[in-house]
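[audit] Reproducing an earlier prediction to check determinism. Same input, same settings, fresh worker. If the tokens differ from the archived copy the diff job will pick it up downstream; this log only records the rerun itself.
[audit] input (244 residues):
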Amino acid sequence: MDEKAWFASWFDTDYYHLLYKNRDLSEAKSFVGNLCSELKLPQGSKVLDLACGKGRHSRTLHSLGYQVTGADLSQNSIDAAQACWEDGLEFIVHDMRDVIPNRTFDAVFNIFTSFGYFDHAEENEKVIQSVHSMLRENGLFIIDFMNADKVIRTLESHMEISKEGIDFQITKEYNGTHILKQIRFEDEGNSFHYTERVQALKEEDFRTLLINNGFEILRTFGDFDLHPFDVMESDRLILIAKKR
């Protein structure tokens, strides 16, 4: 597997969706509902769910009265999401580093650590710049990421997760720039090995990225209930930024 494109290959497998099957719709509804209450976006606003996976957050946004586009690089995920197509809810295959041609949005959501997949800071900048280009004046950009400080400090080096007869052997490490998750398992006599590589971006990294690329940071939260961010204790790093 080409490590530079780990997200393109791993996310497009049925095994990825099996391993993370516990990411359910009720969790998405609670978090997105809290966010939208905070944001007070008008009904009918056009929003982009960037790196939407199978669309659980997109569906919740649509149910709250928004016109939603869900975009993801994984054809497998988008094929699954398309089953939920409705008027005002669409899904497209799209690389988050690129601008969607001829489209603008009132808000862009990037939820559940769907950032930092790349090896180079320049590609992070491409994502931020593309989002900025697609947002309307005073549009909002919402990023939900892991609290890298806490993850590094409490990193569990090995675990085993069993799902539908498959035992996933998972090891984690921090190499100074990325949090690496090695995923090994066997199925039908075949051995598989995938690597997740996510940059250990911290609050100051996001602040620099956003401010240097035309955003003003409005608020920062530390969990899905939108409590204040605490670098030592918070599980999440959630930033709400506005296009300048």
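[audit] rerun output stored. Observation attached for the diff report: The chain has two domains: 3-146+202-243, 151-196.
[audit] end
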